[in-house]
Write a structure and sequence with these properties.
By secondary structure, the chain is an all-alpha fold. It has two domains: about 60 residues, Arc Repressor Mutant, subunit A (Orthogonal Bundle), CATH 1.10.10.10; about 40 residues. About 75% of the residues lie in helices and about 0% in strands. The protein contains four helices and no strands.
């Protein structure tokens, strides 16, 4: 059974917008989350995560924005590649230095 459903961005945005616009109509944000999550077919926790991410992206909550997270992920990937390349160059340098000594 596939546990992870992918929801289109439009569905996510609409659900988040509904929660943010309608949360005053409910006793708490969690009540709004559970009600709206039932209507769109996801869990309340999933919707809560989407709302938190939207609040961070809008500057209403502290944390890394989606753009900053993407940039950080890309920088970490680039860093891994550079470390791997440096290791290869270091080993190649040692190999050729040893070959030069053996001559």
């Amino acid at each position: 059974m596939n546990r992870h459903k992918r929801y289109p961005p439009e569905v996510r945005e609409r659900a988040v917008r509904l929660v943010l616009e309608r949360q005053e109509d409910y006793d708490s944000q969690w009540a709004a989350l559970t009600s709206i999550a039932d209507k769109i077919g996801c869990t309340a926790e999933t919707l809560r995560n989407w709302v938190r991410r939207a609040e961070i992206d809008q500057g209403q909550r502290a944390g890394l924005t989606s753009a900053e997270r993407d940039q950080l992920r890309e920088l970490k990937r680039e860093n891994r590649e550079l470390k791997r390349a440096n290791e290869i160059l270091r080993k190649a340098s040692a190999f050729f230095a040893q070959a030069e000594r053996d001559r």
